[in-house]
Every structure is written in C-alpha cells, then in structure tokens.
Write a structure and sequence with these properties.
By secondary structure, the protein is of the alpha+beta class. It is built from 8 helices and 13 strands. The chain is about 45% helix and about 15% strand.
C-alpha cells in the first residue's frame, strides 16, 4: 500500500480555524494596544514635565532645559512604543508561518508513518523532530505525491511568508535577497542605504515596512492551501527499509485471538517487503504467513522462485518495510 494522507473536510476545519483565530487574536488583542501611540506619548510627556517641574528652581534653572528634557523623554517613549508595535507585528507574521509549517509536518508525519517508515542517512528510523524541517523538504515531500501544492495560486505567497519570517529571524542573507526581488518595498532605507544593513538587525530597529494588510493576504494563502488539499494525497516514496533485529516471535493477540509474528513489537504484515541475511548475503522478498501457529514464516525471493522458511525465535537481522497494524 502506498503511504497517503487522509484529510476529509471536517478534519481540515481545525487547521483553518487555527489560522483564522491566530490572526483575529492579533488584530483584536495585540494590535489595538498601539492604536493611540501619539496621544499616549503626549500624555506621558506632560506627566513627566509635571514631575520634573516640582524640582524647578527659578533662581538657578532654565525653563527651556526642563522643556527639552520632557521632549526627549516623550520622543524616547514614542520610539519605544513604535518599536514594540513593529516587533509585535513582525513576530506575529513569523509565527503565522511556523504555525502552518508545523501543521503540515505533524499531519504528514502522522498519516504517512501509518504504513511507512522514514529513515535517516544512517539507515535509522527517522524521528519527527528531524522530519521535513525546512520549506524545501516539505516541497520535495509533496513533489513525490499525486497532488502538487506548487500549482495552487497561494503557494508563491506562502513561500513569500516563509522568506519574511527568515528575514525577521536572521536579517541579511539569501532569504533577504529573494524577498527584495519579490517585495522591494518591504525594506526601509535612508538615502538609498537599507536600515537593515546600517544596523545589522531587523528587530532592534524598524528595518522592514510590511503593510498591516499583508497579514490578511498571508492568512488567505494558508487557508487556501488547506482548502485545496484533496481528501487523499498518495505518496511515492522510495527509501531504504528500516533495519530491525530479530528474533521473530509468535504472539496471540488478546483482542482477536489471532496469532501474529512480531519483530521488536512490530507486527509483520503478510505482503510486506523484508530482507533477510542468509548465507552471508541479503535476500529481498515478500513476507508471507497463513496465520496458523504451526506454520513457519516464509520469504518469497524476489529474484528467484526460491521460498525460504525460518524458525521462530531464531535470532536474525531483518530490514523491514511497511510495518504497521493489520487492517
């Protein structure tokens, strides 16, 4: 059986709702905190001016000095609020992409590993933490399927959001160059010099100028991805089998009272591909067993008509594909 993702419409709803609620919460709970920066700064300036005014001595103090101190305080206060507003928006955009990426990774890994095991370069079973950790790996995963998300209109916008979050996190680099070619207006400059280059930062200075409306465009793109995904996406994934050491044991399942063969608590499903080391060489074949506890497991050699049988509880080394629970 080819590995696949099964995602009916009712299971798409939580992914879509999570994206909608994330943006809605930002707009209603966070962005509104910065709606009156100018007025708040003026009020704080007047408050500070009144506080320092209590120390004013007309015999030795110049009123202009106190007014200048208040203006400096107010400007610093206004700058701090503006930077916090900017940082809040930048981190919201960055996290929005990561929410989608983790949704895709979690769903893909959970569904595909029902019938398939990923392996790393050392032939060891791949853990979720190392699965599709980059946008390129997610793209490659779906290129090996019967649905190509690169063909939907939102894919380029999702990639743009990915570049945005990379630039926010890392500043100048390959992602910044790519984003400049797509959205040159996102980069603030002073006399032709990018602020990001002047200060080597995208968070300690307001280096980017991404419109407030951009978050809606990115949200729509992520939602479209989930809406466009078919109910079933089948994958053609070629990889080395997972190596598992024996012995093969015979166990009776308490729920079904059916006997089954297991290797390291994995059930061997009739029809799965295995490789067994036999007479100093690896032989590939299809595992078969009738289910009768008196029968021995069989390996139907792929390269000949030979059928190998092996004893239970014999310590062997197997490489096994398509392990899983029998449906």
């Amino acid at each position: 059986m080819k590995p696949f993702i099964y995602l009916p419409d009712y299971q798409k709803e939580p992914y879509i709702e999570r994206i909608h609620s994330y943006v809605k919460t930002y707009k209603e709970r966070l962005a509104t905190q910065f709606n009156n920066i100018d007025e708040e700064s003026e009020q704080e300036t007047e408050k500070y001016y009144s506080e320092i005014g209590s120390y004013f001595n007309p015999d030795r103090d110049d009123p202009a000095d106190f007014a200048e101190r208040a203006r400096d305080f107010g400007f610093d206060y206004w700058q701090t609020l503006n930077l916090m507003k900017y940082n809040t928006y930048m981190m919201t955009l960055s996290t929005l992409y990561q929410v989608w990426e983790q949704q895709v990774r979690e769903l893909s890994f959970k569904e595909i590993t029902r019938y398939h095991h990923f392996v790393d370069k050392k032939g060891m079973k791949l853990e979720f933490k190392n699965f599709c950790t980059t946008f390129g790996e997610i793209k490659t995963l779906f290129l090996n399927s019967d649905w190509q998300p690169t063909s939907i209109t939102s894919w380029d916008t999702i990639n743009e959001l990915r570049l945005v979050q990379n630039v926010i996190k890392h500043g100048d680099g390959a992602a910044a160059d790519q984003l400049k070619s797509i959205q040159p207006g996102y980069f603030r400059d002073v006399n032709g010099k990018l602020i990001m280059d002047l200060y080597s930062s995208t968070l300690n200075e307001i280096a980017l100028s991404i419109p407030d409306t951009a978050i809606d465009r990115y949200r729509e793109a992520l939602v479209e991805f989930w809406e466009e995904m078919p109910e079933r996406v089948h994958f053609t994934i070629e990889t080395a089998p997972v190596r598992i050491k024996g012995p093969i044991t015979l166990e009776e399942e308490t729920v079904t009272d059916i006997w089954g063969h297991y290797v390291e608590n994995h059930k061997l499903i009739p029809g799965c591909t295995i490789q067994i080391r036999f007479q100093k060489k690896w032989i590939s074949g299809t595992y078969q067993w009738t289910g009768n506890p008196a029968d021995k497991p069989e390996l139907h050699n792929k390269n000949s008509s030979e059928i190998l049988t092996f004893d239970l509880n014999h310590q062997i080394t197997l490489e096994v594909q398509n392990l899983g629970s029998q449906s």
